[in-house]
Amino acid sequence: MANIEMINEKSSWQNLTERFSIKKVNFFIHIFFFLLALFLSRAVMFEAAVPFLLPLWAIVKQRYENEKWTVLIGGLLGAFTLSLGQALILGLQLVLYELITRFKFWKFPTSVSVGLAIFFGQFIWQGVVHLGIPPLIVQLYIYYEVILAFLMTIFVKLFFVQPHRFWTIGWSYERVGAGLVILAMVLTGVQSVVVSYFGLYPFLLHLAICIAAFAGGVPIAAMVATIVGALVGIAKLSFTGMISVYAMTGVVAGLFSGLGRIGVVIGSLIPSIFFFFYDATLPLDTVYFVSIAVVGIVFFALPQSMFTFLHDMIHPKRDEVLLQRQQWLTEHTSEKLESFQNFVLFMKELVFDRFTSTETISEARKIEPCATCMSCFRYDRCWGESNSMEPLIEDWFVAKSGIKESEQMMAEERIKLKCIKSTKLLEELDHQLYNDKMNGQFYHGKKMIALQLRDLSNHLNKLMEDMKDETLSFKTIEEELEYQLKRAQVHCFQIDVLNNTVGERVVICSFANKNKTHEDQYLLCERIILPILYDVFSEPFQVEKISDQKVPFAHVQIRFRSAVRYEIEYDIYSRAKNSAWVSGDTHAIFHIHPGLVAVMLSDGMGQSREAQRESRRLVRLMRECLSYNMNPETAMHTLHYVMSLNREVDMYATIDFALVDLQKGALWSWKAGSMSTYILRGERLLKVDGAAAPVGFMPVFSIETEKVNLLADDFVVMVSDGVFSSEFDWEEQEKYLVNLLKSRIQNEIPIEAILYDVMEEFGNLYPVDDDCTVIMFSVSHVVPKWAVFSPLSKGIS
User: Domain 566-781, what architecture?
Assistant: First the structure.
């Protein structure tokens, strides 16, 4: 009990820690957007235009639903610090933007909607303030603000992509440039924030330069310093020498980055000290130097993991990624090749080893008396002590193996002079020679196939060894699904295939939350996503669960599972002739995967142990072939070939093989010398017949595939030929058996009791005098455990 309490306490502590970690991350995200909105709403361009808060609100409302209220509060608070009128103008623009986006008859792009909201909002406000049309200079500032807002919307949209893609989409030049523009506007908004001798603007700018220099080197640091400094200068209409100070700071800090953090801090101080003595007109005062001194302290306190992450984002390890992809492909390809090699070895053993172990083909022929000689009264004279017949027959075989007709004729004449039954003896010798030639040809054919398969196996071994040194590419099933969904204009940001086993597949798709109801999501799945999954995996799927997720951001998760719509119930009746222990019938029912069931019924020739062994071997080999994903028709042709080559004994077996698809509701049937299959559908009777000979019986073998679509509550019956007696009319027996089955089904007798009851009554009228086996199974809809009634219930009481 103490251990259990400790485990429960540990689990609760872990859950508490995880919840705290999630809340901490959410708190920092809220703080980030609050400060971003606060400073952007304070950013003033050309000392008159304030265009940057509305673009942020538009993009955050579209992509960061959970952060929109934080942005709204921070933006209004920042605008209020400028003036009450600016806060009212911003509120008016927000209202106009919401009205424009809700206009039903025409949907504008986001940047156009933002521009229109600012245009109408400013014109309405300035018109009220000036009691008419605003002056030309005021209109000019309005046009500037509209253009800047239009461009800022594009920059914000480039930088703030969907939340799930923020760190994974990659940092292109366009996105990095957009981020620098946003940073410059934020710095513009914090220029007036000074506490004693500490200024927030020089602090943030120098900290950004130091981070860029340490993570990216000279090019990144110089780019950040130059672009941000120039944009801030443009915003304040002050093209001063400070731009040169910022550019030199980035270059020198980047040059000293090889010395570590100390080098970056020292390098960032050198340009400022130089320009302090060089140009007295620059605003390099006490606030400036105190702020960059604080930057050095904060820079040393930043975690190394942040710089490692930034360095990997700027300079991705492409060689390592390619190496991992090659390793992944090598492992998976080797696994597939090993599976194929096992299949090759199985085929080699099946075709050659199992059926040639007792065959002997030798050059030295042992001559023994034929049946004609054994029944002749002169046997002792010919095959006695003198044994004068054996050399003559041996010479005849030698002559027949040659190409000289004269030698063959002389050998036949010598036998005719010696034997009084020469005509019959020569016929028997010809027959024996023909059998020997055929055995040799069959042996040669099997050996040739075995050697070819062995060579193929050797090539696969060499290929698997060379795979480790090859550079290959791969494409996962998730990428294939993402491509197909994009073609269908379905925006799914994450796909997880939890299980890729046939019939047991589980796929989870995550979609952005666009305020759609579960009914709309389900309609999307039914119309578009489920057909795509069927095309990719070649099996039907069903929607298992639709759930709303809030962590790490609001989105919708839809869980798909392989649709096994039917379930099977079966019963088997099997009895040996005269209630003996040995039966020539063999049966097997097993799942190839949850959505596919195999049913086999084989009948060996006769009622002996040899017949039982032959039917069991046929079922076992058929099952092995299916385990290697061999096509059933191909498997039956292969088994016929290998069994027909076994000429030591004259044995064969019938097989009735069926596949029941529980996903689509279909029955495939292959028959080789077997009886008809009966499908009972209410009062209707459907029969599936086959015309192929038993496996291994005829030299030429042909088999056809029959497919029948099954319905719920269909009963399928497979029988061996021992059920019907040859002493009575075949059709009458069949009709009587079907009527007995229908009567039990209509009376809703459980399937476990139907066959025993039916066969007892059937045997009373038509005695069963052979091995017999009856397999009966039914398919029905899969009903959830929580269902109150069945889909096919007769009524509800």
Answer: 4-Layer Sandwich (3.60)
